Amino acid sequence: MNPLKLGFIPLKQVRRCSISWGMSKSPSAYPTLSVREFFKRFPDDEACLVRIFNVRHGERHVCRACGKEATFHRMTNRRAWACSNCGDHLYPTAGTIFEDNRTPLQMWFYAIYLFCASRHGVSGKELQRQLGVTYKTAWRIAKHIRVLMESAEAEVLLSGHVEIDEACVVASGAGALPERQSSWASRSVAGEWSRP
Q: Do the beta carbons of residue 129 and residue 136 sit within 8 Å?
């Protein structure tokens, strides 16, 4: 699963958040969405908020207050939707990294896009330049995104059959023996890696 797919899993459940760019490629592929297409799809905070709501809840779902399936309409002057039956408020950013945050959603979405589009990661200084925010804000955004990526990748990385191409994995540390190191290296060159 791509950690930055923005499928918006509640933070209370998994402590991570992920935006679907709407691509049909494999989860490990880098986004093919250009910067122009990104800003066309997410021109303002309202478009980002609508995307979060649609991914997390959808147009129609069961209201948590009245228990009936209902449509929800956007409330003015709040980041919320209201149930058409009972009027209960639903905040789509609640339980995500966007909750209680004054940084515009479009900046968060663009920062996540930069992390997805970059092969080598994005530094805090690069985010500062790209987003036009202070270094402290850029560092905080990057920290949140990295934590989410790490928690999402920890579930997926090195599970099942793992093949490594053009890599040499060598055991190191106080307990590693030279013959064990060479056997690990020969396995990694062969393209398969598993602990003996």
A: no
Encode the chain (196 residues) as per-residue pLDDT tens digits: 343 445 433 333 333 334 444 444 444 445 578 899 999 999 999 999 999 999 988 878 888 888 888 888 888 888 889 988 888 888 999 988 998 888 999 999 999 999 988 888 899 999 999 999 999 999 999 999 998 888 776 666 666 676 666 655 565 666 655 554 444 444 444 444 444 4
Q: Work out the number of other CB atoms within 10 angstroms of the CB of residue 177.
A: 9
CA distance 102 to 111: 15
Tally of residues, the chain: 196
From the list 65, 91, 94, the residue with the least C-alpha distance to 80 is: 91
pTM: 0.64
Bridge partners, 72 (sequence order):
83
User: Alpha carbon 173 to chain centroid distance?
Assistant: 33
47 contacts 38 by C-beta, under 8 angstroms: no
Contact between 106 and 44 under an 8 Å Cβ cutoff? The reply is: yes
Q: CA geometry: angle at 101 spanning 75 and 127, to 5°?
A: 125
Beta-strand (E) ranges in 43-173? 60-62, 69-74, 81-83, 89-90
d(Cα 32, Cα 95) in Å, to the nearest integer? 29
**Residues facing 89 on adjacent strands:** 82
Contact yes or no for 23/31 (Cβ under 8 A): yes
